[in-house]
Design goal:
This is Phage-like protein. This protein has one domain. It is built from five helices and no strands. It has 151 residues and is mainly alpha-helical. It is elongated. Helix content is 58%, strand content 0%. The two termini are 25 Å apart.
Length: 151
C-alpha cells in the first residue's frame, strides 16, 4: 500500500534528482581539482564539462609520446569506443579512425612503442580515477550521502 504524498514532500524522481545534485555539489567542493577532473573526464554525460576536463587532463599526463599521440590517447580513454554505437547520439562517440592507434603518430614509431605509450597513459589516467573514486567513497560514507546495500 502506498502512502499519500505529504504537501512539500520530495519523493520519487524528484528525490533522486535532489540527491544527485547534493552528491554532485559535495564531491565538486570536496575533491581535489585533479580528482574531480579525472571523474568528470571519465564518467560525465555533460559534454561541455567532459570536454573541459579532457583538455585539462592533457597536461597532467607525463609521457615521452608526442603531443598528438598523448591527445589521442587521452581522448579515446575518456570516450571509449562502444560496439554498435555508431548511430546513437545519446552517448559521445568519436569517428572510428580516432580509435586506430596507427593514426596517432606521424613519426613511424614501432607498434610496440605506440602500444607501450598508450598503455602507460591509460594506466596513469586509470590510477587517477581509482584515487578519485576512493576519495569520493570515503567522503560519501563519512557524510552518509550514499546508502550501502549488502546482499
Amino acid at each position: 500500500m502506498q502512502c499519500a504524498k505529504q504537501k512539500g514532500e520530495v519523493v520519487g524522481k524528484e528525490a533522486a534528482f535532489l540527491q544527485d545534485c547534493r552528491v554532485f555539489g559535495r564531491l565538486h567542493r570536496a575533491l581535489t581539482p585533479a580528482h574531480w577532473r579525472a571523474l568528470v573526464a571519465k564518467y560525465s554525460t555533460h559534454q561541455e564539462r567532459k570536454h573541459g576536463a579532457i583538455l585539462e587532463l592533457l597536461n597532467s599526463v607525463k609521457t615521452p609520446a608526442p603531443k598528438r599521440f598523448r591527445e589521442c590517447a587521452v581522448l579515446t580513454w575518456a570516450i571509449p569506443q562502444v560496439a554498435g554505437a555508431e548511430g546513437k547520439r545519446s552517448a559521445a562517440v568519436l569517428p572510428a579512425a580516432w580509435y586506430d592507434i596507427t593514426n596517432w603518430d606521424n613519426d613511424g614509431k614501432p607498434e610496440s612503442t605506440r602500444y607501450r605509450w598508450r598503455s602507460g597513459i591509460r594506466k596513469t589516467l586509470d590510477d587517477q580515477v581509482n584515487e578519485a573514486l576512493t576519495a569520493a567513497q570515503e567522503l560519501l560514507d563519512a557524510e552518509g550521502l550514499i546508502e550501502s546495500c549488502v546482499a
